[in-house]
Amino acid sequence: MKRAENYFKKEYNQSMIEYTYQVERENFVDAGVVSSQVKRILKQIGIPSVVLRNIAVACYEAEINMIIHSYGGEIKLSVDEDGNVYLEFADVGPGIPDVEKALTPGWSTASAKAREMGFGAGMGLVNIKRVSDSFDLQTSSAGTTIRIAFRVSA
Questions:
Q1: Strands 8-13 and 16-23, how do they pair?
Q2: Closest CA to 80 of 132, 22, 13
């Protein structure tokens, strides 16, 4: 297994920090690696614990959804000069056929394999939307992109 640090590509754009991570389809062995690394990075730069907890929940849920439902994709973490945090989860197909149902607590299309491992309770998108300050979901048969943001400064 690769170390988490090797999954990320770090960039500096003016006063913004950015990391990028690749997620593989059905890679349950590494499930949670990204959210753990994101939490560690943000803790090191001083993101308050209450905000950090929400970010960790949202990142984990989105990462697991990508592993279970997509053909793979990319997670981008950005932190602006004020410390506000932005996450983008962009995957490749098949998309979400019914977004309204997918945002209903308990609704799940997870495979039997995912459910056997304890995933697929139907709370992923619900939790992501609940804990983030901003939530945007775009989906098509080509894939799904979720963009979320967390305000750190007042």
A1: antiparallel
A2: 13
Token pair, residue 154, equals 């007042």
- Are 149 and 84 within 8 A, CB to CB? yes
Q: Which two tokens stand for residue 108?
A: 């799940």
Q: Which of 30, 25, 128, 15 is nearest to 79 (CA)?
A: 15
Beta strands 134-140 and 85-91: pairing type?
Answer: unpaired
Higher local confidence (pLDDT), 51 or 118? 51
- 3-state SS of the chain: helix, strand, coil percent to 5? 35, 30, 35
CA 128 and chain centroid, separation: 8
Q: Among residues 124, 21, 36, which one has the least CA distance to residue 77?
A: 21
Q: Where does residue 92 rank: exposed (0-12), middle (13-18), buried (19+ CB within 10 A)?
A: middle
Cα 83 to the center of its chain, rounded Å: 18
Mean pLDDT, to the nearest integer, of 135-139? 97
For 15-71, what is each residue's pLDDT tens digit? 578 899 999 999 989 999 999 999 999 999 999 999 999 999 999 999 999 999 999
Number of C-beta neighbours around residue 29 at 10 A: 10
**Virtual torsion, Cα 38, 93, 72, 88, nearest 10 deg:** -20
